[in-house]
Specification:
Elements lengths: L7 E2 L3 E5 L13 H4 L7 E6 L5 E11 L4 E8 L8 H16 L4 E7 L3 H9 L3 E9 L6 E10 L15
Parallel strand pairs: 5-6
Antiparallel strand pairs: 1-2, 2-3, 3-4, 4-5, 6-8, 7-8
Amino acid sequence: MTWTPPPLKTAHLDLLALTGEPPEDFKNKEDDLHGLSGLPSNWTIFLKGSEEGIGSIGYIRWERDLALAELGFILKHSERRRGYMEEACRAVIAFGFTHMALNVVEGRSLLKNIASSGLLEKVGLKKTGRVSVRLSQKGASVDLEVYHLYASDLSSSRPSISGPM
């Protein structure tokens, strides 16, 4: 069964269900790792008033029995470091806790991807460990940092998932 998320709106972004392959310039070597290639369970990120998608975000793994979902995202290089992905992450995380009844949001980042690691921490996820994964049957393994945000952690002492918008 395919799950198609509803549209989400933030101060600067519209997030609409992704139903096909992301544009070619979204794709990079991390696509297969994050599972973003054409998954319908993601949102395409649009700047308000624009018809051109600038990225993709969504839950790339959902373990309903554990109430856990893994967040995955990608953004065009030209749109990075502008706060758009932080805004999108906050909206999707809030959606997960509110509408998917999640207890845990998980994020993973390549060790060398300092920007993604920083973003995960900025939106409230805490580093909980490291895993090594093989990208394909014959491929090399890569190490990933693993981050979690628990519903029980959401309080005044934790960063707000709604954040400034």
